[in-house]
C-alpha cells in the first residue's frame, strides 16, 4: 500500500496532516487552512467491551492504522519548525473563523443547513458573518459535504446530468 499512496493522513492529527499536505503539494499556509464541518456535537463514551469488539471486528483496519501512523510520524520528523508551523496554522484558522463565522451552531437531525447526519447525532454547523456570507471561500468552507460535492461535480462534469444523486438532474 505504501507504493500506491505517497501520503496517508490521520484525522486524529489533522494539523500535522495539513502541514504534510502543504509540503507534498507545495501549497501556501492559507491554502491548507480549513474549517471542520460535519463534526459531532459531543462524543459518546464507549464501554471497554465495545472498544474490544471494535478492535476485533476491525483488526485489519487497526493494523493498517498502526502501520501508517508509524510512517506518518517518520514523515513528520523531516518537517522543519513543525510546532511553529502548527501554531501558525492555528492562528490562520482562527483568523479565518473570526472573519467567516458569526456563530457555531448545533444542528438536529432534520436541520438541512448542516447537511446529512445520522439519526440521533447532532452535528456542528455554522452561521456566517455578513462579510462571510458575501465571500465565496467562507461559503465553500462552511458548506455541508453533499452540496459541496454537487457543486464540484457540476464544475467538472457540466454535461453529465445524472452523475450520482437524483439532485444532479436538477441543473
TrEMBL record:
Signal peptide: none
Chief localization: Golgi
Record keywords: Glycoprotein, Golgi apparatus, Membrane, Signal-anchor, Transferase, Transmembrane, Transmembrane helix
Subcellular location: Golgi apparatus membrane
Gene3D superfamilies: P-loop containing nucleotide triphosphate hydrolases (3.40.50.300)
Statement: the UniProt record of this protein carries the keyword Transferase: yes
Membrane topology note: Single-pass type II membrane protein
Annotated InterPro entries: Gal-3-0_sulfotransfrase (IPR009729), P-loop_NTPase (IPR027417)
Highest taxon listed in the record's lineage: Eukaryota
Family (UniProt): Belongs to the galactose-3-O-sulfotransferase family.
PANTHER family named in the record: GALACTOSE-3-O-SULFOTRANSFERASE (PTHR14647), GALACTOSE-3-O-SULFOTRANSFERASE 2 (PTHR14647:SF62)
Protein name: Oidioi.mRNA.OKI2018_I69.PAR.g10804.t1.cds
Species per Swiss-Prot/TrEMBL record: Oikopleura dioica
